[in-house]
Design brief:
alpha+beta, Nucleoside Triphosphate Pyrophosphohydrolase, three-stranded antiparallel sheet, manganese, CoAse, metal ion binding
Length: 197
């Protein structure tokens, strides 16, 4: 596993706490009301060239329809925490068996305009693990080499209006996919924690 990536993570026995690292950017929009806890799995295929696994959500979903995402969702009352929620959601969304996943640690929490506070759980996944995307939730599963994100030339920003307010969002483009919003924000946090400009 990539040593700088491992050093960038919060240890499993010390999960990060809210607020998200981007809290100040959203405080004017969402105020200080509590965010709904959520978790995503950031799956990393290990090997000579580590790669990150992504999904493209189906177009009819309530939140982030059609967007590129990491598997994940709301932390339910029955979940023991972010790791349990991320593993459960990954199993439901893409058929990723828990015994093929080795959680490694956390990135910083990230807040979303839809009112969630997401805890990213980074995990090693055995390459060749069979996946069964849920057709009602996931339109596509694909991977992107970690080296792509480590190149600063591949990180872009664009301005957009949200509820009448201008906002700057991060964006990556790879193989016909546009990775932006929550997912790009999580990746930017990973890169910053790895010391990549």
């Amino acid at each position: 596993m990539n040593p700088p990536l491992l050093r960038a993570l919060h240890p499993l026995d010390a999960p990060p706490s809210p607020p998200g690292w981007n809290h100040a950017e959203l405080a004017d929009l969402l105020g200080e009301a509590p965010r709904t806890p959520a978790a995503v799995l950031v799956p990393v295929f290990d090997g000579a060239e580590p790669a990150l696994l992504f999904t493209r959500r189906t177009e009819h979903l309530r939140h982030h329809a059609g967007q590129v995402a990491f598997p994940g969702g709301r932390i339910e009352a029955a979940d023991a925490g972010a790791v349990e929620a991320a593993l459960r959601e990954s199993e439901e969304e893409i058929g990723l068996a828990r015994d093929a996943v080795r959680p490694l640690g956390y990135l910083d929490c990230f807040e979303t305009v839809s009112g969630f506070c997401v805890t990213p759980v980074v995990a090693r996944v055995a390459r060749g693990t069979p996946l069964r995307p849920h057709p009602g939730e996931v339109a596509e599963v694909f991977e992107v080499p970690l080296t792509f994100f480590l190149d600063p030339a591949n990180l872009h920003t664009r301005r957009m209006d949200y509820r009448g307010r201008p906002r700057e969002v991060y964006e990556f483009r790879h193989g016909g996919h546009v990775i932006w919003g929550v997912t790009a924000g999580i990746l930017v946090n990973l890169l910053r924690r790895m010391g990549t400009p």
